[in-house]
Amino acid sequence: MKTQKKKILVLDTGKEWGGGTVSLLELLKRLNRKRYEVSALFYTTYSKGDGSDIRRELEALDVDFIHLESRPRFYSKIIKESIRGVLAPLPSLRKKFIAFHDLSGRIEPAAKAIASILKEGQFDMLYMNNQPSSNMEGMLAAGIAGTHCVQHSRVEVRLTAAEAEEVNRVVERVICVSRGVMDSLINAGVQAERCCLVYNGVDPTLQAARTAEEVREGLGIKKDEFLIGTVGSLIKRKRVDICLETIALLKEKGVKIKGLVVGAGPEEERLKGLAKTLGITEQAIFTGFSVDALSYIRAMDVFMLTSIKEGLPRVVLEAMLLERPVVAAHVTGPAELVLNDVTGFLVEGDEAKDFARQVEILLHNPELRTAMGQEGRQRVVKDFSIERYVNGVLAVFQEVFKS
Questions:
Q1: How many CB atoms lie within 10 A of CB 56?
Q2: Which of 168, 230, 293, 377 is at 20 to 30 A from 98, Cα to Cα?
Q3: Is 1 within the bounds of a domain?
Q4: How do the pLDDT tens digits run along the chain, 403 residues long?
Q5: Residues 330, 260: one domain?
Q6: What share of the chain is helix, strand, coil (3-state, %, to 5)?
Q7: In terms of domains, do 134 and 229 share one?
């Protein structure tokens, strides 16, 4: 008997290309199209940075792209800012009013539009690719349409009681990319039985397009200069300030050092200004967004991730796959990837000096860098393969469709 295809609508409310985007595409590449038919709904046709964008990438995978413009009423922002100003002395009340304003002015209208798409397209499942508080309209829409609903939560979260209640009401499974993410959801009130752990994964055959020597030569980095760096969106929670301050501290000690900042975002100009203030404009190299981040990682002696909050950062998996030792903040995500003193260092402190101390150990010990890099690659290949990730997500889909 021929099995009828299940129709899945992906909802992604993101505004820029990131690790979650790549993980979604890797999943969709490997879906059995005899079993699943997929469409994707995005608010923003954001750029990949090489002349392509999310629409083109999805359509190349034979995924129907639906662009739903999110257009709040013209006076919405004025009202919201007025609320912020008037209720500034009453933060608790201000928060409630802003939440109500968002619900009535943006979330509920979007939910009705998404519910119509679910009904008209006769979709069997809504699969949300962000995290609950940014997917409230999706949950409301699934409830209206009576559609199966799965949330893929990719970052540590803080939910309100109302948000947790909505997850428990509508979402059948929350796929958590790390135990830390799962714990944050459960602590916020999401029922533990709805949560399941599926670690992110990477393709072990991934290769950098350029050699380390080519990258370093292209950037004017000398052979005797120690290269550290980070990759990611330049947003506040990534705390790229700490990377720059680490470069400055090591420079003060007389280290011949260069630092790569690969990525773009709203913090870029401020960070460039900080580099100037720290006196490291010649040491800090800002590349902007790159589709060839792997080559930049390959060129680094040490990879750094200083984020205050993560889920399970794909970029750390890529750095470990490329045999780079990782120095990362001891927070959700990196804490489950980096084996302290084995594949890199987990830093407990929040200051640049805490990170600089660990980087300096690796600076003076090339044998340790090599050993950590090799251990990191073995760990990724063994425990964080793309196949394990995809199979884990598909197992959740199958469980939900059987319910």
A1: 13
A2: 168
A3: no
A4: 456 899 999 999 988 898 899 999 999 999 999 999 999 999 999 998 778 999 999 999 999 999 997 655 444 555 555 555 555 565 665 555 545 446 556 788 899 999 999 999 999 999 999 888 889 999 999 999 999 999 999 989 889 898 999 999 999 999 999 999 999 999 999 999 999 999 999 999 999 999 999 999 999 999 999 999 999 999 999 999 999 999 999 999 999 999 999 999 999 999 999 999 999 999 999 999 999 999 999 999 999 999 999 999 999 999 999 999 999 999 999 999 999 999 999 999 889 999 999 999 999 999 999 999 999 999 999 999 999 999 999 999 999 999 7
A5: yes
A6: 50, 20, 35
A7: no
For residues 251 and 372, state if they share a domain.
yes
Same domain (yes/no): 147, 83: yes
Residue 225 lies in a domain: yes
* Tokens of residue 50, six digits: 């090489």
Shared domain check, 191 and 221: no
**Which SS3 state, helix, strand or coil, does residue 51 take?**
coil
> Could you give the number of structural domains in the chain?
2
CATH number of residue 249's parent domain: 3.40.50.2000
- Regarding whether 237 and 186 lie in a shared domain, the answer is no
Residue 71 sits in the same domain as residue 109:
yes
Q: Are residues 267 and 185 in the same domain?
A: no
- 359: number of Cβ within 10 Å: 25
According to DSSP, the β-strands at 195-197 and 173-176 are: parallel
Question: For 241-246, which contacts have Cβ atoms below 8 Å and span 24 or more sequence positions?
Answer: 241/271, 241/274, 241/306, 242/306, 242/350, 242/351, 242/352, 242/355, 243/304, 243/306, 243/355, 244/271, 244/274, 244/275, 244/278, 244/280, 244/284, 245/278, 245/352, 246/304, 246/352, 246/355, 246/356, 246/359
Cα(298)–Cα(208) distance, integer angstroms: 7
* Total-model pTM: 0.89
Question: What span, in angstroms and rounded, lies between the C-alpha atoms of 376 and 369?
Answer: 10
Contact criterion met (CB below 8 Å) for 293 and 268 = no
92, two tokens: 């608790």
115 Rama class: left (phi>0) / alpha (psi -120 to 50) / beta:
alpha
Token couple for 204: 């072990």
Tokens read off for 371: 């050993």
Element (H, E) at 37: strand 36-42
Distance of CA 178 to the CA centre of its chain: 12
**Domain hosting residue 359, numbered range:** 212-383
On whether residue 319 sits in a domain, the answer given is: yes
